[in-house]
Amino acid sequence: MYQHGGDIYTHKNMIDFSSNINPLGPPDGVITAACEGIRSVSYYPDPWCNKLRERLSKMHQLPKEYILCGNGAAELIFSFVLAYKPKKALFPIPTFHEYEQALHTIDCDITYYSMKEENDFILTDDFIPAITNDLDIIFLCNPNNPTGHLIPNGLLDQILQKCVDYNIYLVIDECFMDFVNKEEQDSFIEKCTTVKTLFILKAFTKLYAIPGLRLGYMISSNTEMLMKMKEVTQPWNVSVPAQLAGIAALEEEEYVNKSIELILQERKYLMSELSKMNLKLYDSKGNYIFFQGDKGLYEECLNKGILIRDCSNYEGLEQGYYRIAVKDHISNEKLVHILQEVI
């Protein structure tokens, strides 16, 4: 069975660099809101997440009907696939595993486009010919997980246009876009208003450090498709604490700015220190760093109390590829010290 990062239950008392969560932890306001939600667990949650969708609608300046909330981004991926039942799908590899896992549940024919190591696993114009008119759906992760690369703006426009021409559904996972330097952010959310075959996936998990609450949302002007997703999803899928936490999180502008500043600063520090070691680094734009090192590095770090992400189970990768989260400076210093010992 596929193993994700963040398994602190098997690997106890470790400093966890394997999951890409905001090192500041949840904002106090979000914790307070979630705790208030506990007081209301004797009532069913709003199945439509109306107050949360209204707040998201205001933030994104989109109609509330264009937003569907879910029990984490992963649930929305599965709901989308179950509702649409695509027969043929395409996505580049390596990338987030849930696209493949969801598609396998309906026996969808998957075409993998292998991003080349000699191109640093960056998506290039060679992807365009892979988009054929027999496809039903394409999944893209931007910035990509685990590499952290952004898809070049012009290329993404070409991909979208070809999907429009062939009536292919394009799902862009922007769950890590919030950690990208604002000057480099290139969200396609605004394009949803005019392109009904475009779907944007977002989550509260990483930015607000609440993976245990499970909260994500999808944006699209294709309201019929969003309704189909709702119909195949269990009712009351987003808990009261999660909904209240999400509403509170959207008020945390100062926290978000502080988080991005910290990530940019600490990513720069880690890239500088890791560049002095026998590692090949890739230019990540997210809150994590992807690199190639010696086989067995995962186990070496584990023995020293550090949990990093072994990326060898990503489709398209082999042993020797790793990903680390960008954490607080003290934790990052500990990681650097351990890597200096074992490399």
Q: Can you tell me the CATH class of the largest domain?
A: Alpha Beta
Strand content: 15-25%
CATH superfamily of the largest domain: Type I PLP-dependent aspartate aminotransferase-like (Major domain)
Task: Please list the strands of the largest sheet in the order they lie side by side.
Answer: 2-8-7-6-5-3-4
What CATH architecture label of the largest domain applies? 3-Layer(aba) Sandwich
- How far apart are the termini? 29 Å
Q: Identify low-pLDDT runs.
A: none
SSE diagram, text form:
Layout: E1 15-16, H1 28-38, H2 50-60, E2 67-70, H3 73-84, E3 88-93, H4 98-104, E4 109-114, E5 137-141, H5 153-166, E6 169-173, E7 198-203, E8 216-219, H6 223-232, H7 240-249, H8 253-274, E9 280-281, E10 288-292, H9 297-303, E11 306-307, E12 309-310, E13 321-325, H10 329-342
Parallel strand pairs: 1-11, 3-4, 3-5, 5-6, 6-7
Antiparallel strand pairs: 2-8, 7-8, 9-10, 10-13, 12-13
Helix pairs in contact: 1-7, 2-7, 3-4, 3-6, 8-10
Structural summary, described in words:
It comes from Mobilisporobacter senegalensis. Residues 13-338 form the Aminotransferase class I/classII large domain. The chain has 343 residues and is an alpha/beta fold. The protein folds into two domains: 15-25 and 253-342, Aspartate Aminotransferase, domain 1 (Alpha-Beta Complex); 28-249, Type I PLP-dependent aspartate aminotransferase-like (Major domain) (Aspartate Aminotransferase, domain 2). It contains ten helices and 13 strands. The chain has helices at residues 28-38, 50-60, 73-84, 98-104, 153-166, 223-232, 240-249, 253-274, 297-303, 329-342; strands at residues 15-16, 67-70, 88-93, 109-114, 137-141, 169-173, 198-203, 216-219, 280-281, 288-292, 306-307, 309-310, 321-325. The strands form three sheets. A seven-stranded mixed β-sheet has the order 2-8-7-6-5-3-4, sandwiched between helices. The longest helix has 22 residues, at 253-274. The mean pLDDT is 97.
